[in-house]
Specification:
This protein is an alpha/beta fold and 406 residues long. The chain is built from 13 helices and 14 strands. The protein has two domains: 153 residues, Aspartate Aminotransferase, domain 1, CATH 3.90.1150; 226 residues, Type I PLP-dependent aspartate aminotransferase-like (Major domain) (Aspartate Aminotransferase, domain 2, 3-Layer(aba) Sandwich), CATH 3.40.640.10. The strands form four sheets. Strands 2-8-7-6-5-3-4 form a seven-stranded mixed sheet, sandwiched between helices. Strands 9-12-11 form a three-stranded antiparallel sheet. It has a two-stranded parallel sheet with strand order 1-10. The structure holds pyridoxal-5'-phosphate (PLP).
Length: 406
């Protein structure tokens, strides 16, 4: 079979392959606990469902403009007025896509020439380096030397070259839950604008924050108009409203660049589905207490997760300030996170995600999206599996797990 060199380079999604393994184990009857999920268990907001249902009832389901329906783009404009304090976003600055993932892909495809470099701050979302490679670009990873989740400007500067076209910034951050400081965001915006580098702000979790923290938005630190700034914003309804399956995301960028992205999308997937765009519009214009409710649930779960993780003497943990995840350091138990994940799934029936995939070897990404019961039992099982002082057996319902390792 002939496969392109480029396609061969693209790694399998680690989360999806772990999910598949866990699914097969569940089919077999193993009571697997999922601490790997990137989606909460909520029902979609009622406003989203009603809006989609109204479209279905009309029955006139056709293509929409490639860039998205006028009414959804209007709702996005209002969203940027309210939550980004940017009243200058125009319909021509917006392209709606099949999820933030496609929005990001369109963007990278539109700004990179072969061998152009994109700086990615570690820890990073697994898809960034793969997407950069898919458009023949070069991912350049910058990791904080002090082991924190936020590299310094000096560290970033060391990796920026004449070929750097963009820096991808994801705050609140998947996988760490970190929120970059105001000072850092301000400096990075200034740096990108001076150097003519795109500041790609992946804002997919930007309202899912804890303890009343305000997420510094890069737009707050530029005086430039939307047409002149280097800031590009990616967002969507997947995480904010727990609407992952609706596949609606968008990009806000200068008009000229948006036009190019519309051409790119027009030749690939065309429009996002009319019905799902209607659902996204419903979510954006409906009651926003849904988002606060989700954040509150995540914050409670975060508190439980932190309490449970404190039961490990060797695990170092920086509490997340937002998102669906935390990223504890398990290197005291095993420096190889892929091996540790496999071990935990096979021996303790718990799904975790290896930190290696996010540029953080020795760490595990644990999700706080599930139930309190799952968090408590999941962490208890992990502790049982890796703590040498644990009892030899663990009962899960009528099943018995036995330690057949040291
Ligand atoms: C940081 C980050 N950006 C983008 C996405 C993709 O979002 P969407 O479901 O809208 O494609 C994810 C999903 O996990 C994510 O974690």
């Amino acid at each position: 079979m002939s496969i392109s060199y480029l396609a061969k380079e693209i790694a399998e999604s680690p989360t999806l392959s772990l999910n598949e393994k866990a699914r097969l184990m569940r089919v077999k009857g193993d009571p697997v606990i999922h601490l790997g999920a990137g989606e909460p268990k909520n029902r979609a907001p009622i406003a989203a469902l009603l809006s989609a249902a109204a479209k279905l009832k009309e029955g006139d389901i056709k293509y929409t403009p490639t860039e998205g329906t006028p009414s959804l783009r209007k709702a996005i404009i209002r969203y940027y007025e309210e939550y980004y304090n940017r009243p200058d976003v125009k319909p021509e600055n917006i392209i709606v896509s099949n999820g933030a993932k496609q929005a990001l892909f369109n963007l990278l495809f539109s700004i990179l020439n072969p061998q152009d470099e994109v700086v990615i701050l570690a820890p990073y979302w697994v898809s960034y380096p793969e997407m950069v490679k898919m458009v023949n670009g070069m991912p350049v990873i910058v990791k904080a030397e002090d082991g924190s989740f936020q590299p310094t400007m000096e560290e970033i500067d060391q990796y920026v070259t004449g070929s750097t076209r963009a820096i991808i910034v994801n705050s609140p951050n998947n996988p760490s839950g970190e929120i970059y400081s105001e000072e850092f965001v301000a400096q990075l915006v200034d740096y990108c604008e001076k150097k003519g580098i795109y500041y790609i702000s992946d804002d997919i979790y930007h309202q899912l924050v804890f303890d009343g923290i305000k997420v510094p938005s890069p737009y707050d630190y530029t005086n430039k108009s939307l047409e002149d700034t280097r800031i590009i914003s990616i967002n969507g309804v997947s995480k904010l409203y727990g609407m992952t399956g609706f596949r609606i995301g968008w990009c806000v960028a200068p008009k000229k660049l948006t036009k190019v992205m519309i051409n790119v999308q027009a030749q690939t997937t065309s429009t996002a589905s009319l019905v799902l765009q209607a659902a996204a519009e419903g979510a954006l214009t409906g009651v926003q207490s849904v988002v606060q409710g989700l954040s509150q649930m995540l914050q409670n779960n975060r508190d439980v997760m932190m309490q449970e993780l404190r039961a490990f003497s060797g695990v170092k943990i920086t509490p997340p300030k937002g998102t669906f995840y935390c990223l504890p350091d398990f290197s005291a138990y095993n420096k190889n996170s892929v091996e540790l994940c496999r071990f935990l799934l096979e021996k303790a029936w718990v799904v975790t995600v290896p930190g290696k995939e996010f540029g953080m070897e020795g760490y595990l990404r644990l999700s706080i999206c599930g139930s309190i019961k799952d968090i408590k039992q999941g962490v208890e099982r992990i502790k049982w599996a890796i703590d040498p002082d644990s009892p030899n057996e663990l009962f899960i319902g009528d099943k018995k797990l036995v330690r057949d390792w040291l």
